[in-house]
Backbone:
């Protein structure tokens, strides 16, 4: 819940909507449930309060429309990048949240993707060296784009290329994925994904 709250607070649209909503509720309370001491003031300024509330509500509607438009644009970018990916079979194409291609790499060279706040870190091999590229996107979008491929969610913070995992084992009761490569870390498997990972490797 804390992570979700921080996500909302980082979005200026949601912050503005919460502030305007608070102003609107306060204004309506003054209009219809005013305290005795504010009675005369409210009666004197009732029309001003009323039209101010209308203006606040109109601004809230405008912000909602802008946010919906922004989300529709993101969905269209994801749809376009998915179509582009299917046209270029044999490569994993990574796009940012605006739909711009940031990395195109062979599947056998992608090890895992790691969450980093509003970014993802793609860990891959290029020129026989381990590389990392930071892309502004979400793990949810990456998981959705590659849902029919072998990039599998194993943890809230990790998506792994299952084809490159050499061993699934337990350390201190916790399941981990091992690439058997000293350059790469052991990736944890959270309990929420235990069954999914086991089914993938046993089928």
Residues:
């Amino acid at each position: 819940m804390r992570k979700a709250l921080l996500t909302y607070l980082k979005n200026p649209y949601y912050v503005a909507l919460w502030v305007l909503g608070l102003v609107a509720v306060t204004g309506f309370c003054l209009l219809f449930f005013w305290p005795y001491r504010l009675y005369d003031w409210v009666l004197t300024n009732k029309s001003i309060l009323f039209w101010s509330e209308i203006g606040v509500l109109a601004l809230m509607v405008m912000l909602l429309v802008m946010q919906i438009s922004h989300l529709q644009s993101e969905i269209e970018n994801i749809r376009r990048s998915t179509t582009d990916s299917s046209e270029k079979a044999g490569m994993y194409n990574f796009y940012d949240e605006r739909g711009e291609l940031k990395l195109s790499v062979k599947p056998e060279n992608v090890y895992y993707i790691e969450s980093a706040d509003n970014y993802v870190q793609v860990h891959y091999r290029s020129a026989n060296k381990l590389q990392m590229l930071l892309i502004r996107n979400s793990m949810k979008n990456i998981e959705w784009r590659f849902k029919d491929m072998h990039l599998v969610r194993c943890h809230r913070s990790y998506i792994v290329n299952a084809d490159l995992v050499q061993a699934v084992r337990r350390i201190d009761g916790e399941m981990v994925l091992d690439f058997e490569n000293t350059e790469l870390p052991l990736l944890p498997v959270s309990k929420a994904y235990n069954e999914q990972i086991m089914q993938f490797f046993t089928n």
Observations:
- Residues 66 and 78 are 19 Å apart (CA to CA).
- The domain at 89-202 is CATH 2.40.50.1020 (OB fold (Dihydrolipoamide Acetyltransferase, E2P)).
